[in-house]
Amino acid sequence: MEQSSQPYRAGFACFVGRPNAGKSTLTNAIIGSKIAITSNRPQTTRHVVRGILHREDSQLILIDTPGLHKPKTLLGERLNDQVRQTWNEVDVVGFCIPANEKLGPGDRFIAREIAALSAKVVAVVTKIDLVDTKRVAEQLMAVSEMAEFADIVPVSAVSGTQLDTLVEVLSKHLPESPQLYPDDMISDEPERVMIAELIREAALEGVRDELPHSIAVVIEDIEEEETEEGPRTKIYAEIYVERQSQKAIVIGKAGARMRVVGTRARKEISKLIDSRVYLDLHVRVAKDWQRNPKYLQRLGF
Ligand SMILES: Nc1nc2c(ncn2[C@@H]2O[C@H](COP(=O)(O)OP(=O)(O)OP(=O)(O)O)[C@@H](O)[C@H]2O)c(=O)[nH]1
User: Fold this and answer.
1) Could you report the predicted ipTM of this complex, rounded to two decimals?
2) Stated pTM of the model
3) Are residues 8 and 149 in the same domain?
């Protein structure tokens, strides 16, 4: 059969692009599982989260990277280093450019940076549901004039338009390789990191404007325990904020907000690890943690 004559391909891909370009949303839409944080504020993606897409003739391992940006703090610098390191480890880069915004210096800067990589670069024009077809065509033209790309694919992560095509195209540019991960794995991110992300997401809900990038979560301990209703996973986590005033916001009046955060996070974690969960949450102030190397190391950056 024609299909079996195709060589099996496997490898790593990541999406790059300026903040808010739609990288996390696209990764989630493709993998079909909520593994990376998305928000309408730039630079929320902290950890390099992988999702694994299994297809008949390929295995595409997606790495989600934060946006490259002008570093203002030590955290910013480390994030940029992480991004560059990731770019050097992948086989295919999907360069995300929103259809609803004009190409700018930020895009050109990234285009220059990735031109030097050994990875194949596919330009991805994102958010096409926000514009008409004429505008999509204009953007495709502008993108093709900006640099040489292995392919250009317009997509919408929200409506799902062209997602299959994008996966097809990214897979086509992977190297011939045996399968790299077992069939049933969707992520090789340590469970702890994913759990911490779910708590962070719950803690940010509704207060993103007040606490844009000041929340970090550390999982202190995870224990399995037997209860009368069966086994349960006990998770001890600390939510770090930078100032006392932020602690008050996170906790809420008489702890009301914290209870909501706890319930929400517990439900999500329970789904993720498929177990009943007891969540022990504490909020701590780590003064200016974004600028303090000691804290950054402890918080996993
Ligand atoms: N309408 C529409 N909105 C989208 C689409 N993809 C992403 N968005 C929105 O654009 C915003 C940014 O998306 P993200 O996926 O967080 O962007 P990102 O590139 O990962 O951003 P950083 O983490 O800041 O680098 C969010 O509000 C998304 O809901 C899309 O296909 N259509």
Assistant:
1) 0.97
2) 0.63
3) yes
